[in-house]
Each structure stands twice: as structure tokens, then as C-alpha cells.
Automatic annotation (TrEMBL):
Keywords: Iron, Metal-binding. It comes from the Bacteria. GO terms for molecular function: 4 iron, 4 sulfur cluster binding; carbon monoxide binding; iron ion binding. It comes from Eubacterium uniforme. This is Hydrogenase expression/formation protein HypD. InterPro entries: Hyd_form_HypD, HypD_1, HypD_2_sf. Coiled coil: none annotated. It holds the Pfam family HypD. Belongs to the HypD family. One of its GO terms (biological process) is protein maturation.
Length: 360
């Protein structure tokens, strides 16, 4: 089956099919496993906005740097330390004496706060549906254990509205398996009913190749092609019909993880969020509810509003929307490289610019 799928993707000669891999881990794994190299020139993979670090706005880094300047200990995943804010990164804050601590989970940060009661500790809560439950769990545990010097600076994002905003950028989404393991596939079915196509993909070589083959086959059929033969009637019949296939059924179930969803819903509510390079998307994120404000760093420290945009030369926004390839950015590989990233997409391993630089 795998060999057949590889052969199909190599020799595909139907209409041009554009597939957006929404997830940063997919982008990275597709490059790392050399999958792009086996694809026919008529299949184009576009990297989407699913790298949490890449979509974290400049203003969020500015907020975190502000807290560091006030003497607050910032706990964060390592990738965020080098992401540029408007006037420097958290690495610069650290060089200036700020306490910036790299953690592997929000619970690590909460434990650190518990052991250092003389410090105020803030965890930078970024990520998608996959990681939000663990952010919430850290708050729940802090409450249960009476840890009051711990809070979250949230920039948690949710995918459904981003899917809607970017739906015209491609023929088919490669939906992130781990996100849909949490939220289920109801949203994918809904999108398909509204003409937006996609397949949920896993992360092994086999899962990715098979999912891409399923995506191409269905997307070609939607354009009226079956086995290379065009039918105008079929094209008309499928014109506004989306499709959805769950190619990761061993992990992704239709109902997702109701327990994780319930936990998040208990503590958080939808919020309008800024996505770096894309702008404000309504209800595209989650923030702590008013009753948990003691754990919301924005409220707790009365953080002023930061509104600065990123470096004007950086085209992360176009990259994240699939409008250009990273190599089309004039700064790519010159002023911007992994040692000196100008934009967030070059910082994280999951970022499209970083993946292009490493593997292309
Ligand atoms: Fe931004 Fe650098 Fe990517 Fe250009 S190459 S879009 S400057 S991150």
C-alpha cells in the first residue's frame, strides 16, 4: 500500500493540487523524511500557520519582556527565547539581567513557583488545542496546592477560525493529527459540508505519504479527474463539495478527547487573538475566565497594551498564509538565518523558514 502511494505521488499527472500542511511538526517531518522530493511537480505543499511560536505576535514578546523588566521570573519553552519582539528578544532581557528560565512544561513552571515562593513566576502559555489542557492543568494544580505566585501569560490559539480564513489558499488541508485528537473531527466534517477539504494526517513516513496520496486523489476527483481522465459532469457535480478523510484513525476519534475539552472549557473562554503576520482573528484563541484572574498575568500585573508590529522586511505573514515560499523572502538565508533570525518562522524548528533553510 505504501509503495503504491509513493508510486502514485511520483507519477501523478492530473490537475495541479495545492495542499497546506497546517501543522509545524508536519512541515518539519515532511522535509526531514524527504517526502517533498518524491512528489510530482503537479503537487505543491504549502506550509501553514500551525507553528505556535511562529504565530505568536510581537506584542506578546514585548509583554513578556516588560514582565522580566519588572523582576518577574519568566518560564518558557526554549524556542520563544530567541523570537524577536519590537525591540529585542527574551534572550536580550536575560542578557540585561532578567530571569528567563527554560521549562519543558507548564507544570515544571508551577513546581518552580512552588519551590521559589520569594519569586513571582509567569509561564508563557503559547500553543494550540494540543497543549492548552496542560496549561490549564498547571493553573488547577496551583489553585489546589495554594500556589499564588504563579500565573499564565496566554497566547493560546485554536485552529478552526484559521482554517476558515485560509480556506482559499489551497485545494486541501493536511489537518494536524494531535489537534484533532483533542477536538475531534466534527469541525472537519462541518468544513467539508461548506466546501473546505482536508485529511487528518499522522506523523510517521507511512502516515504522511498515505494521507498526501488520499488528499491528492480526492482533490483531483473534486476537479473532475479520476485516474487521469477528466469528466466535466463530475467536475460540475463536485464543484462546491468538500471532502474529509480521517487518515489517522488509530489516534484521532470523531469525539476527540471530551475530558481535555471539558477541562479547558472549565477554565478558559474563546478570545480574539492576534496571529503574527496575519492579524486579529476573532475567537481564534483561549484566555482564562474572569474568575481565574488571579492566574492571568495580564490582569495580575496590569500589563500595559503593546501594539508594535514586527520587522517590516520580514514576510512571515505571507509564508504562514501560503502566499510565498520562505525562499521568496528577500531576507531568507541572508539577513535572516537560524543564527540571526529576523522573524519567528526562522526561530522554531517547526517554522517553515527554518525547515526550508535546514533541508532545502
Ligand atoms: Fe521572516 Fe526570515 Fe522567514 Fe523572511 S526568511 S519571512 S525574514 S523569518
Amino acid at each position: 500500500m505504501l509503495n503504491e502511494a509513493i508510486e502514485y505521488l511520483k507519477s501523478y499527472d492530473g490537475p495541479q493540487i495545492n495542499i497546506m500542511e497546517v501543522c509545524g511538526t508536519h512541515t518539519h517531518e515532511i522535509f526531514r523524511k524527504g517526502i517533498r522530493k518524491i512528489l510530482s511537480p503537479k503537487i505543491k505543499l504549502i506550509s501553514g500557520p500551525g507553528c505556535p511560536v511562529c504565530v505568536t505576535p510581537v506584542s506578546f514578546i514585548d509583554e513578556a519582556r516588560y514582565l522580566a523588566e519588572q523582576g518577574v521570573t519568566i518560564c518558557t519553552f526554549g524556542d520563544l527565547v530567541r523570537v524577536p519582539g519590537s525591540d529585542g528578544s527574551l534572550a536580550d532581557s536575560r542578557a540585561a539581567g532578567g530571569k528567563i528560565k527554560v521549562c519543558y512544561s507548564p507544570m515544571d513552571a508551577m513546581e518552580y513557583a512552588k519551590e521559589h515562593t520569594d519569586e513571582e513566576v509567569v509561564f508563557l502559555s503559547v500553543g494550540f488545542e494540543t497543549t492548552t489542557p496542560s496549561d490549564v492543568l498547571s493553573v488547577k494544580t496551583a489553585m489546589d496546592e495554594g500556589v499564588s505566585n504563579f500565573s499564565l501569560l496566554t497566547a493560546n490559539k485554536t485552529m478552526p477560525n484559521a482554517y476558515l480564513v485560509l480556506k482559499d489558499s489551497m485545494d486541501c488541508y493536511l489537518y494536524p493529527g494531535h489537534v484533532h485528537a483533542i477536538i475531534g473531527t466534527g469541525i472537519c466534517e462541518e468544513l467539508a459540508a461548506n466546501g473546505v477539504s482536508g485529511v487528518v494526517a499522522g506523523f510517521t513516513d507511512k502516515e504522511l505519504v498515505l494521507a498526501i496520496a488520499v488528499a491528492v486523489k480526492n482533490a483531483a476527483k473534486r476537479k473532475g479527474y479520476v485516474d487521469g481522465v477528466y469528466s466535466e459532469d463530475l467536475a460540475k457535480e463536485n464543484e462546491n463539495k468538500g471532502f474529509f478523510v480521517n487518515c489517522y484513525p488509530r489516534v484521532v476519534k470523531a469525539e476527540g478527547s471530551p475530558k481535555a475539552v471539558k477541562l479547558v472549557d472549565e477554565f478558559m473562554e474563546p478570545s480574539d487573538e492576534i496571529w503574527r503576520g496575519i492579524g486579529l482573528l476573532e475567537k481564534s484563541g483561549m484566555k482564562l475566565k474572569e474568575k481565574y484572574k488571579a492566574y492571568d498575568a495580564r490582569v495580575k500585573y496590569n500589563i500595559p497594551a503593546f501594539t508594535a508590529q514586527g520587522n517590516k522586511g520580514c514576510r512571515c505573514g505571507d509564508v504562514l498564509q501560503g502566499k510565498i515560499l520562505p525562499s521568496d523572502c528577500p531576507l531568507f538565508g541572508k539577513a535572516c538565518n537560524p543564527d540571526h533570525p529576523v522573524g519567528a518562522c526562522m526561530v522554531s524548528d517547526e517554522g517553515a523558514c527554518s525547515a526550508f533553510y535546514m533541508y532545502n
